[in-house]
Amino acid sequence: MELLGVHARVDAAGNLCGFYPGTERKAPRLLIGSHLDTVPNAGAYDGVLGVVLALALLEELRGRRLAFGIEVLGFSEEEGVRFGIPFIGSRALVGRLDRELLDAQDAQGISVRKAIQNFGLNPEEIPQAELESDALGYIEFHIEQGPVLENLNQPLAAVEAIAGQSRLEFIFCGRANHAGTTPMHLRRDALAGAAEWISAVEQAARGVHGLVATVGKIGVKLGATNVIAGEARLTLDVRHRSDDIRLRAVEDLIGKAREIVARRRLSVTETTLLDQRAVAMDSVLVEEIERAICKTGCKPHRMTSGAGHDAMIVAEKIPAAMIFLRSPGGISHDPAESIAVEDVEKAIECGLHLLDQLAASPEFQKRINRA
Ligand code: HGY
Ligand code: MN
Ligand code: MN
């Protein structure tokens, strides 16, 4: 960032920010960025590609200034792996990094507040991380993380909406006991009950078009070969582009858990960690992105993102839109995640067209004058 003459700083929520001024010192700013964190054993592109692509655009401007400044953002935490609640960095930007979230703890009992302090930052300054009023919009480049663009044989797509997502924790409780002396009909096996429910989750999701439901993590107490499990903790991730369908599916899966535990003399509790509504991207930005994609010689394609992104949080405050790059093999959240260099070139070309279009766009001009 500094090599590009960008003023680089880290905000109170750990977001990395770099401001590239426009022609006027007080010119409003366009935000371009993504997240810097990953899931465990991740690929090398989810998130960080969007930050590096933003820097590549600044490099390609070669010192040229636009009618607006550009703020590059590297969000500190988006995946929700450590604290179970995602989008911590972008929530700070929109003023939603609240006390409840700051008190959330990781598996070692360290709170978000403590983690921010341990990183050398002051949580009391988090309100200063909130978006400036002169922000014109937010653009996020991101890998598609799925098979659509590969099957269309297209490098780029404009994201028109981001599916909503629910994340919950379920705790199945039974009675720990000896694996050798307890007859099958006298058991209260929490893990067997959880396993039956996991199959029910998969079967239920297969029956609803466009619904995905995943049990991605399971923990067993105490977890010994010769002990019937007294407790099983599971996560549930449910997504759909329609909030009604998603929320109905969550209720249905909670009902299935209750039915299974009643039959097996177990108990179950569920905690909602995230209820994130589906978000439409800004139609003006989506159109401009499509035009920019066409100028690169690629066919335009609009799609809904099944993955969640910081853009869905930033969109609460300012117009936001995303540009997807093809994911070869459709793989993500795995070291096999990859990109094609030619697609990255197309993305940079598309980004430069987009910047020039926005600088010349009457609608954007209005937003610049209003800012
Ligand atoms: O899980 C997701 O939707 C994204 O990878 N954060
Ligand atoms: Mn991810
Ligand atoms: Mn991501």
Describe the structure.
33% of the residues lie in helices and 25% in strands. It is of the alpha+beta class and 371 residues long. The protein has two domains: 2-163 and 278-370, Zn peptidases (Aminopeptidase), CATH 3.40.630.10; 164-276, Alpha-Beta Plaits. The strands form three sheets. Strands 1, 2, 3, 4, 5, 6, 14, 15 and 16 form a nine-stranded mixed β-sheet that branches. Bound molecules: (2S)-amino(hydroxy)ethanoic acid (HGY) and manganese (II) ion (2 copies).
Brief sketch in words of this structure:
The chain has 371 residues and is α+β, with helices and mostly antiparallel strands.
Task: Name its key features.
25% strand; binds (2S)-amino(hydroxy)ethanoic acid; 5-stranded antiparallel β-sheet; Aminopeptidase; Alpha-Beta Plaits; 16 strands; alpha+beta; 33% helix; 9-stranded mixed β-sheet; binds manganese (II) ion; 371 residues
Rg is 23 Å
* 3D shape: elongated
Series of H and E elements: EEEHEHHHEHEEEHEEEEHEEHEHEHH
Biggest sheet architecture:
9 strands, mixed
Q: Layout of helices and strands, plus pairs?
A:
Blueprint: E1 7-10, E2 16-20, E3 29-35, H1 48-61, E4 69-75, H2 88-93, H3 99-103, H4 112-118, E5 135-143, H5 148-152, E6 156-162, E7 164-173, E8 177-178, H6 190-206, E9 212-214, E10 218-221, E11 227-228, E12 231-240, H7 243-263, E13 267-276, E14 279-280, H8 283-295, E15 302-305, H9 311-314, E16 320-325, H10 341-360, H11 362-370
Parallel strand pairs: 3-4, 3-5, 5-16, 6-15
Antiparallel strand pairs: 1-2, 2-4, 6-14, 6-16, 7-12, 7-13, 8-11, 9-12, 10-12
Helix pairs in contact: 1-10, 6-7, 8-10
